[in-house]
Design goal:
InterPro entries: 4-carb_acid_sugar_kinase_N, 4-carb_acid_sugar_kinase_N_sf, NBD_C, NBD_C_sf. The chain has helices spanning 9-21, 52-68, 86-97, 145-149, 179-186, 199-209, 237-248, 267-283, 301-319, 330-339, 378-383, and strands spanning 2-6, 26-29, 40-44, 74-77, 101-105, 113-116, 119-122, 125-126, 156-159, 170-174, 193-197, 228-232, 252-255, 286-290, 324-328, 345-352, 355-360, 366-370. It has two domains: 2-213, Rossmann fold; 228-383, Four-carbon acid sugar kinase, nucleotide binding domain (Molybdenum Cofactor Biosythetic Enzyme, Chain A). It contains eleven helices and 18 strands.
């Protein structure tokens, strides 16, 4: 068995989706636990949303538990645009696993994310000129991968690599534009190397190191059934565009009341939100919950607003059972899943790279989750009876 430690839950789901695509038995949980019958154990942490000290403590705890279980082949799924405590978490893992080289390949050709001459591009545009520059927690202040890594202790090699050269001690971030590039870098791995990066790189690591697992068996299609609640937890333009189209089509949009957007918690705000969403579900079968347009700025506000959203979602589901729960953004998704106490989820279907459907074990509910910056796939547009825009 191999293990993948992801720094947010949508990244973990993206990894599970890769396994589903290739017919590889996979488990999905929020902690390191034995997974009977699985070749790949995916562990969804929320370290990207934690303080640096808490993130390193959690990484150490998970890695130590895996070592105690005898799992030694570990891949670290990090954010594809290098948000979070990437370097610090990798150094903790490398120390526990006794790895002196870290091979970090965050590029993802599936989503137009590439690295050329050490510069990170999203669909041809430097990272710091995209909407990632406005990320509330880890804004892209540069497009240079060394800058984005925020590493001052160990050496960082980046730029052009060749498949013949040895990796150096410390960090290695090779230029990557195609899946073939990623496959080439996967061939550089040996017992001294800790692999990390995007789900696309993980896929190539599987193809290079475990080709006998790659059966390519698609799971049975899992249809959207019943009513739905979408939590639009991302500020990315993809999310805004979808919500706008859905509202034009008549889908009920319920925005967070301003009472909940103040630093001091006001329970009347939760009551107001829960009432509006529940009424929308009873009157129709599709509702979108989203943050309001009010600008919010107080200490730790992203985490606080996500927690309040999760509490409201839990209250809504107590009043009106929801069959389809659609979640975007890793921190929002993790907050909701924790509030609902959904510790175990069964990966069921990959709708598109990064967008995965999971069955709740103890509830008649299916979750569809995706990273905030990814677009919803055609299946979700069809479910909401919307026309997907041409890209």
């Amino acid at each position: 068995m191999i293990a993948v430690i992801a720094d947010d839950i949508t990244g973990a789901a993206e990894i599970a989706g890769v396994c589903l695509r290739w017919g590889i038995p996979v488990s999905f949980s929020l902690d390191a636990s034995p997974a009977s019958g699985a070749d790949v154990m995916v562990i969804a942490t929320d370290t990207r949303s934690m303080t640096e000290a808490d993130a390193l403590k959690e990484t150490d705890r998970i890695a130590s538990a895996l070592m105690d279980m005898g799992v030694t082949w570990i891949f670290k799924k990090s954010d594809s645009v290098m948000r979070g405590h990437v370097a610090k978490e990798l150094k903790v893992l490398a120390n526990i696993l006794h790895k002196e080289k870290m091979l970090l390949v965050p590029a993802n050709p599936y989503t137009g994310r590439s690295i050329v001459d050490g510069v990170y591009y999203v669909k041809g545009k430097p990272l710091n000129e995209t909407s990632f520059k406005d990320d509330p927690t880890f804004p892209a202040f540069s497009a240079n991968v060394k800058d984005l890594l925020r590493e001052k202790e160990l050496s960082v090699a980046y730029g052009k690599f060749s498949e013949e050269e040895d990796l150096q001690a410390g960090f290695n971030i090779p230029d990557s534009q195609t899946m073939q590039d990623l496959y080439t870098w996967a061939s550089l791995m040996d017992d001294t190397v800790l692999p990390a990066g995007s789900a696309a790189f993980f896929e190539m690591c599987l193809k290079r190191n475990f080709p006998e697992w790659m059966l390519g068996q698609e799971p049975d299609p899992l249809s959207f059934v019943g009513n739905s609640l979408m939590i639009a937890g991302s500020s990315h333009q993809n999310s805004k565009d979808f919500v706008e189209k859905a509202v034009e089509k008549g889908v009920h949009l319920s925005e967070m009341p301003e009472l909940l957007m103040e630093e001091k918690y006001n329970p009347a705000g939760t009551e107001q939100w829960v009432h509006d969403v529940s009424r929308g579900l009873k009157d129709g079968d599709r509702v979108i919950m989203a943050y309001g347009k009010k600008k919010v700025r107080f200490e730790n506000y992203p985490a606080i607003l996500k927690k309040r959203t999760a509490q409201a979602v839990s209250r809504v589901i107590e009043e009106v059972p929801v069959r389809e729960l659609l979640l975007e953004g890793g921190a929002t998704t993790c907050a909701v899943i924790e509030e609902l106490s959904l510790g175990a989820l069964i990966p069921m279907q990959e709708l598109s790279p990064g967008v995965v459907r999971l069955k709740a074990v103890d509830l008649d509910m299916v979750l569809t989750i995706k990273p905030g910056s990814y677009a919803w796939p055609e299946a979700v547009y069809n479910y909401f009876e919307l026309e997907k825009p041409m890209v």
